[in-house]
Design a protein that fits this description.
By secondary structure, the chain is mainly α. It has helices at residues 9-15, 32-36, 103-110, 114-117, 123-135, 140-146, 157-176, 186-189, 194-208, 212-254, 312-328, 332-345, 356-383, 388-410; strands spanning 46-55, 64-73, 79-81. The chain has 14 helices and three strands.
């Protein structure tokens, strides 16, 4: 086992052979080159410390203390403190928002308010309360524990809160002039309710004062109530299921048997064979019988699609593409030959509008052109053989198909 880099030979010998050393990223800190490397010089200058006098802006008594301050000394001998400005810890001196009145507001607002006057507080005791709240940052529990106004009546925690929040709401409304701008203020939107707070504390004290026996008895009563409630729910569910079954049986007894109408037969698409095409001479916009759809398949037969909405032009183009794919496959040579045959027919575009007659003639024309390509292929195959009679027969049939293709183009 190799001695880890950064570990002395003596320490490695103490390990022995029975305790393998597990590599760890902590060994990177034991490298000698890291220990012996000198710290990089700071661009701010040489670090020095000075014993300086300072003031805390959070204090208003002008107290001055001294402490060590880090600084930098540049090449010219100038010294600059690392932390400039106010005392760094003064920003943590946060003060709560405390609503206090002045002499004019007491005379014109607080003393003339009948609701505040009915609380039985004097100006001196109210000032004492506000001083305590300011000293303890509105911690009412701490203030109630230390509240001791000379020759004053005893005040509970709810009394202190009720007095302060009532004064705060009255001062807010008086300073704003209206309550319309203070609708989102927490003091006015959810005013403090001393009676509800007293009832809540009394209920909590009663709950906390329960004995173990009383708590066990209450839990037993709650468990019995839960069992009764579950039993009632089960009975209600069984009655509902029974009523639903009876209603279903009655409806089934009185129902009239309805024979479902069979769906129209859907003809299976047969493989396209240009040699077996026999098209009608003309096409009509109106179907031949009631209920027959106005769409045609690749064989120009009535096509029953699945329920839905179909555009005849889109269906016609998709059917023509299916014709071409079934007859020609993916051979680029055959596709190019078919495009040439379409161009030779004099009708290489798409119909302007897609009535049933136009769509049927368009599909018939393309089918006959596909048949013409098949006959030409047979002519070339026959030309390679010795049968002259077969060649003449194929040529005659080709001329016949070409004549029908021209008549379909005109239709």
């Amino acid at each position: 086992m190799k001695r880890p880099e950064g570990m002395s030979r003596e320490a490695f010998a103490l390990l022995g052979g029975s305790n393998p050393v597990i590599p760890s990223h902590l060994l990177d800190g034991l490298k000698k080159k890291d220990k012996l490397a000198k710290p990089k010089a700071s661009t701010k200058g040489t670090v020095i410390y000075r014993y300086k006098q300072f003031k805390n802006q959070a204090r208003d008594d002008g107290l001055e203390l001294r402490h060590w301050v880090k600084g930098y000394k540049d090449a010219n001998g100038r010294i600059r403190d690392a932390q400039e400005g106010d005392y760094a810890f003064a920003k943590y001196n946060k003060k709560v928002t405390l609503y206090r009145y002045d002499g004019e507001e007491w005379l014109n607002i607080i003393s003339r308010d009948n609701g505040l006057a009915a609380m039985g507080w004097t100006k001196e005791e109210t000032d004492y309360l506000l001083d305590m709240l300011e000293a303890y940052d509105l911690r009412f529990v701490v203030v109630a524990d230390r509240y001791n106004f000379p020759n004053g009546p005893p005040r509970s925690l709810e009394d202190l809160k009720d007095r302060y929040y009532a004064i705060a709401r009255r001062l807010l409304v008086a300073r704003e002039g209206t309550e319309a701008t203070l609708l989102n203020n927490q003091l006015l939107r959810q005013p403090y309710n001393a009676a509800a707070e007293r009832a809540r504390r009394a209920a909590l004290n009663t709950l906390m004062a329960r004995s173990n026996a009383a708590e066990a008895s209450e839990n037993e009563i709650l468990e019995q109530a839960r069992v009764v409630e579950d039993k009632r729910k089960a009975e209600h569910a069984a009655a509902s299921a029974q009523a639903a079954a009876a209603a279903a049986a009655a409806a089934k007894k009185n129902a009239v048997a309805v024979v479902p109408k069979p769906p129209p037969p859907v003809a299976e698409e047969a493989a396209f064979n240009p040699g077996d095409l026999i098209y009608p001479q003309d096409f009509h916009n109106a179907p031949m019988q009631m209920g027959m759809p106005s769409l045609l398949n690749a064989h120009l037969e009535a096509f029953w699609p699945q329920p839905g909405v179909y555009a005849r032009g889109v269906h016609t183009r998709e059917t023509a593409a299916a014709q071409e794919k079934q007859a020609l496959g993916s051979s680029q040579k055959n596709i190019k030959a078919f495009e040439t045959a379409v161009a030779e027919s004099g009708y290489a575009g798409l119909p302007r509008y897609h009535s049933r007659a136009v769509s049927g003639a368009y599909l018939a024309l393309r089918g006959e052109l596909l048949a013409l390509l098949e006959l030409r292929r047979q002519v070339r195959a026959a030309a390679a053989g010795p049968s002259i009679r077969a060649i003449n027969s194929v040529v005659a049939v080709a001329q016949q198909w070409l004549t029908r293709a021209s008549s379909s183009c005109g239709a």
